[in-house]
Amino acid sequence: PSETSAICQDVQQCFQNGHFTNFILSRNPNKVDKAANDRWIMPSFSKNRDGTNGPFVDPTIGNFELRHSLKLKMAQVKALLAKEMYDRPTLADDTQTHEMEYLRYGQGALLARHVDEHHLELKRPNGSKLPLKPNASRRSITWLIYLNDDWDGEVDGGQLRLHERQFDSVSYVGARKNDLQVGWLKAFQEKGEQPVFLDPNREGPENETCMLYTIDGSGNKRDLSTKPFANIALYLAGGDKVARSLMVSNGEDAKRLHLIDAPKSLVSSLKTKAGPAEG
User: Fold this and answer.
1) Do residues 195 and 171 touch, judged by C-beta distance below 8 A?
2) From the centroid of its chain, how far is CA 31?
3) What secondary structure letter does DSSP report for 37?
4) Averaged pLDDT for residues 18-36
5) For residue 222, is pLDDT > 50?
6) Are 23 and 5 spatial neighbours (Cβ–Cβ below 8 Å)?
């Protein structure tokens, strides 16, 4: 409790001294929902300038000794996770830019349901073929420490809601090397819940190199279609219905397929990148 109290004091001091920056995640560009955007961050590293430390690890700001002690504790947690989890050795690799930061949400601020990390191929067309940044990492494990004083979830809001699967998975979830999980084969009769991964680099015609596959309880890998499908299919609206018709060959698999996150429309992605009209 004493350490938690000290961290809370450090957060308040750093915020009052202007070491937090506002970050906007609202879908409303006109900021009608201004309260929802009352979100502030004090990061470990600068996202705008690669290799630049942020205020969280700056020894001249606030109670640096306390934050460094917290970082050492988390290093022990990461080492344990790297040992116990499937194929996640880089969790204990200090050369990776793992995020650690202070966050402050004002009254009325919110963060909608979301997926922390997307497959590279879902971020941009042919994203998997682009060179990775040095020491690139992705979000696969998230930890939170709540520091609110006299918090009442019924009055103040702010509860963390997790959407768990109804049944346990028959095999390890999350990723197989660079192939992130993008969906599930839902449990059906005697068949359990199976994770579905995306491999965007199969042999095939140009821009037709994507394949969904699953892993069963014995560790066996099985492709969900007889040949790779067009990469552009990942950018068609329609959710599970489109995915089942374009990405899966077997009818039973198609009925069970459920995507973790709806595909991003290519039109919407182009619209986001487009700047204001001239004239």
Assistant:
1) yes
2) 24
3) G
4) 68
5) yes
6) no
> What does each C-alpha distance from 1 to 6, 7, 146 come to in angstroms?
9, 10, 12
Q: Which H or E run includes 202? A: none
* Residue 25, both tokens: 């995640």
Write the burial class of residue 54 (CB in 10 Å: 0-12 exposed, 13-18 middle, 19+ buried).
buried
d(CA 125, CA 200): 10
Q: Is the dihedral of CA 98, 23, 107, 155 positive or negative?
A: negative
Buried b (16+ CB within 10 A) or exposed e, 135-155: eebeebeeeeeebeeeeeeee
What does the pLDDT read at residue 170? Answer: 93
Mean pLDDT, residues 2-28 taken together? 85
Q: In 3D, which of 246, 243, 177, 158 has the Cα closest to residue 215? A: 177
Q: Give me the phi and psi of 185, to 5 degrees please.
A: -100, 110
108, 102 Cβ separation under 8 angstroms: no
Instruction: Determine the Cα–Cα distance for residues 145 and 4; give it in Å rounded to an integer.
Output: 9
